Amino acid sequence: MRWHTVSRQALTLREFDEELVVRNAATGSTHLLQPLAAEVLTLLMETGDGMTAAQLAASLGDEGGGGIAAMEELLQEFKRLGLAEPVD
Amino acid sequence: MIIGELAAEALARVLKGPGLRLRTGPVVTCIASPLDEVAEAIALLYGEHPVDDGFADFHVRISRPAGLRRWLKPQVQFQFDGRPPFYPLPGDQGFPILEWGMNWCVSTTCHQYLIVHAAVVERGGRALILPAPPGSGKSTLCAGLVHRGWRLLSDELTLLDPSSGQVIPLPRPVSLKNASIEVIGRFAPQAVLSPTVHDTLKGSVAHMKPSAESVSRALEGATPRWVVLPRYDAGAPARLEGMSKGRAFMQLVDSAFNYHLHGRNGFEVVANAIEACDCFEFVYGDLEEAAAVFAELEARA
């Protein structure tokens, strides 16, 4: 399953050291992302066609089974927060 | 004219009549009250504040509600534009309900500012913002610092001006609760404190008069420089530890009254403030030690 961020216009970001704060205009919520989550969201924002959990894990150099499972969990959390969604 | 220049009888007459137009930083509140204890507390704690004769942002009244309770178990009520937004409180809480009501007026209507529930003090043009939940020792620390060279901007409401990014002062009496009343009495014997009112919703409460300097410089803003999350821990040595800017950002957002109303601009205002600040968590058990830590922090800036 490929993932992408919700409308880019809806997200406002500010990076502090390696952390990222992000405001989602669609939900009105603001979130603090730890470095790994920040990197994943940034990757998703940069991709045009979306990325799978395996591709994201590979981009972060963690393509083992555990890495992919953790990535899927993170993407589900992004979905819950309204930050990302499956492409299809 | 400042309130301290009004004779007690004249002050009582204005409060019982058209109301006293009290300027606190950017806002003017027209206060009316027939209660002697309210007049006495205003004379004691707002003596340095200017009396205004122009437009009033808020019209408030502290009085006894009508009815039998007036005689059996007197209460006080706060009215805003003629309506009581809160339930009445026991009769001896006239001044505390005025202070809480004035905070309510600002936090629910002054949306030209991004308002954070935080104490804030200034030194050298730089603002030290102290966001924290009730009971963390924020007001005690704030009161202690203003007796060691810091200027009071507010002990409760940090007003961030979205256009300039500056903290706008709102110098009013500092609210002290329970053990901190005695702590400040010992720490700063020169502090002017109101009589303690017991058994309020917040326990025992007294208010500390702001300094003449903090009132006279009330139109002089300050640039955010530090965000410090304080926590009082009896007997603990003072400990200042770095906090990530991301966490500090969320702390300000979570402590803000009206962040959601400012939309994307609110996000930028908080982010710009955090960008300019060093951020810490601070545990303290002794005010003198705490003041020394912040003097050093300010000297290094």
Overall shape of chain A: it is: globular
Specify the biggest β-sheet of chain A. Answer: 3 strands, antiparallel
Estimate nothing, just give the exact number of structural domains of chain A: 1
Largest interface: A-B, 13 and 16 residues
Average pLDDT number of chain B:
96
- Report the C-alpha radius of gyration of chain A, rounded: 12 Å
Work out the helicity level of chain B: 25-40%
Helix count, DSSP H or I runs of 4 or more residues of chain B:
10
Cα Rg of chain B: 19 Å
Total discrete domains of chain B: 2
What is the helix/strand order of chain B? Answer: HEEHEHEEHEEHEEEEHEEHEEHHEH
Let me know the largest β-sheet of chain B.
8 strands, mixed
Q: What is the mean predicted local confidence, pLDDT of chain A?
A: 92
Q: What is the 3D form of chain B?
A: globular
Low-confidence stretches of chain B: none
Structural class of chain B: alpha+beta
Q: Outline of this structure?
A:
The complex is a heterodimer of chains A (88) and B (301). By secondary structure, chain A is α+β, with helices and mostly antiparallel strands. Chain A has helices spanning 35-46, 53-59, 65-81, and strands spanning 2-5, 11-16, 19-24, 29-33, 51-52, 84-86.
